[in-house]
Amino acid sequence: MDLSVPPHITPFAFEDEVFAGDGVQVTCYVSRGDLPLSITWTFNGVPISSATSKQTGIVASQSNSRTSILSVESVSANHSGEYSCEASNRAATVEHVAVLMVNGTFLVV
Question: For residues 26 and 69, is the Cβ–Cβ distance under 8 A?
């Protein structure tokens, strides 16, 4: 019988009003769940990595085993979309999604 505890992500959101040139940052914090944890980010379904951060300006960095921070130093309309944090361990994989809209641009799904 496996008694592993699945991850739980504390909900996060971007500010309601974000304008071109603003900086944004959100924290994906896994408040519950067995270690080790794997925390990854996607932007509109595409994984965010150190290789893509130079092109996109989107940086994801893990500060400890339960916390990962996503930041954009200077947003543009191209940064509008869905940002997803996925946390997984041996028990389960969970996801939390937040939508960023820059200068009132709308996400078309």
Answer: yes
User: Could you read off the pLDDT of 59-98 as tens digits, one per residue?
Assistant: 999 999 999 999 999 999 999 999 999 999 999 999 999 9
**What pLDDT is stored for residue 53 in this prediction?**
82
- The answer to whether the CB of 18 falls within 8 A of the CB of 102 is yes
Q: How would you class 7 by CB atoms within 10 Å of its CB: exposed for 0-12, middle for 13-18, buried for 19 or more? A: buried
Q: Which domains does the chain have, with CATH numbers?
A: 8-100 (2.60.40.10)
Q: Mean pLDDT, to the nearest integer, of 5-18?
A: 96
Q: Tell me the whole-structure pTM to 2 decimals.
A: 0.89
Produce one character per residue of 81-100: b if its CB has 16 or more CB atoms within 10 Å, e if not.
bebbbbbbbeeeebebeeeb
